[in-house]
Amino acid sequence: METLFIGKNWLKFDQISSTNDWLMEQISIQKLTEGTVVFALHQTNGKGQRGSSWSAVEAKSLTFSVLLKPSFLSISKAFDLSVCVALAIHDCLIELRPGFHIKWPNDIYFEDQKIAGVLIENQMSKSAYQNAVVGVGLNVNQDEFDDLPKAISLKQIVGIEFPLAKVLERLCETMEARYLQLRASKYESLKSEYLSKLYWFNETHFFKIKNELIQAKIVDVLRNGRLLVKLTNGKLLDFDIKEIEFVE
Hints:
By secondary structure, this protein is of the alpha+beta class. It folds into two domains: 10-196, 2-Layer Sandwich (BirA Bifunctional Protein, domain 2), CATH 3.30.930; 204-246, SH3 type barrels (Roll), CATH 2.30.30. It is 24% helix and 30% strand. A hairpin with a 2-residue loop joins strand 5 (107-110) and strand 6 (113-124). The radius of gyration is 18 Å and the shape is globular.
């Protein structure tokens, strides 16, 4: 693995409740170095965005968390890290074949199916960003998804099985490269790339808001992470996650 710090401290578990939960607990009781990676073959209580769960088949998917210490970011710019991580996962997957996109805020899709999700949990003081635990779930070698028609795996896309450790190593490399960009104050460049890879960007589609269907196009993602859409009548509205649903 060709990295400076991400993945240099590597902790592997056969089974764990949640890699994010484990790391969040440990940073409160011991000093862990930035770039520490916690990898589990099976999570019994994997987590997704805003309280949703992440379902994964044992030893078939990648479920891991990375400890970052982005003290260079102000609290108001916390979403910058989300942009960075989504791009890093996209960088890794796009090496295999085209067709991958970032679905706001930081899911990864292949065409219209979800292949990866991200959950970032932050530890902040009143004025400073201290720790960020970046949890990633990536479908790698699953052959089928019984109750998840919108899910897909790398094996289903490319047609071969992948060694989980090798995929994780490459993800650590791309994550570090993007994180160093962020640390070097290259946010505008990262944001431009993020929008260029954004699912449904500048396309007219149906969305659901409070059980009402609207037709709109995504025109931007604000610095605070809110999604900015333009209605067919020209009106601009912005939404937080769970306030808007992608329909078709």
